[in-house]
Amino acid sequence: MATKDREKKEKQILDGAIKLFSTKGYTATKMEDVAKHAKISKGLTYFYFKNKEDLYMAVTKKAFDELRAVFREVFKFKGRTGMEMVTDLTNRYLEFVLENRMLNEAILNFMNLVQLYNNEESRNSIHPLILESEHFKKLLEIHHDCGKLGVQMVSLGIKDGSIRPELQAEITFYTIWSMLIGFERLSGPVGFEGKELKLHLENWKPGFIKLMQEMLRGTIQASKPKAIQASLF
Fold first, then answer.
1. Euclidean distance between CA atoms 30 and 63, whole angstroms
2. Secondary structure percentages of the chain, helix, strand, coil, to 5
3. Which residues bind DNA (predicted)?
């Protein structure tokens, strides 16, 4: 019962934090704001999460858990080709990002932190309370879980012939993931009304997926322009 009560209160705090981080932003949100929103005392909030940095890392851990659930959901349905899985994952990933913008930002922020963490000199620029967070340490252990599932999907496609055999699974999947991140980052500029850009979100997404599939199948071929015979006179 005590465990369930703890989990319930932690969920209340995390849900409150996600709501406030989404509306007010991380910097403007205070721990007392989260406590008030969760209807829990400030002291009890600090009992579960040591400080705001620790709370943000807990939110980031929740974000990775939810994204990992998306990957697992795609991978668990057998009887499909690797290409079908990758295509399904593409659609679900973009849906996740659209529906969970704050969680996606937390994931991308953590990726930036890992880049800093990998270098001894730049590691010093990370807030010490983040480095002390148990949630941050847990994230370092699990953040490759999504990638591992994605690599398995590509490997399956190479094995079943739906993806071209000369591709290297790890390079291929992380390239796809970087493309998906880029798609999300550019969806704002593309979606912004303008006369110069002859591209709209409703036709960019299917075009993006089609191009990705053709790249993976190896069906993209360069075509030479047809020679035009004309007389100067």
1. 20
2. 75, 0, 25
3. 30-49
Report how far Cα 173 is from the mean position of its chain's Cα atoms: 13
* Local structure of 218: helix, strand or coil: coil
Structure token pair of residue 198: 């002859």
What's the CA gap between 168 and 147, in Å, rounded?
14
Q: Are residues 116 and 27 in the same domain?
A: no
Structure tokens at 13: 């705090």
Name the pLDDT band for 193 (thresholds 50, 70, 90): low
Q: Does residue 63 come out as left (phi exceeding 0), alpha (psi in the -120 to 50 range) or beta?
A: alpha
3-state SS, residue 29: coil
- The Cα 28–Cα 170 span in angstroms is 39
- Between CA 230 and CA 61 the distance in angstroms is 65
Look up the CATH number of the domain holding residue 174. 1.10.357.10
Residue 196 confidence (pLDDT) above 70? no
**CB-facing half-sphere around the CA of 39: CA atoms within 13 A:** 2
The residue range of the domain holding 153 is 50-191+200-216
Would you tell me the crossing angle of helices 101-117 and 2-23 to the nearest 10 degrees?
90
Q: Say whether pTM exceeds 0.85.
A: yes
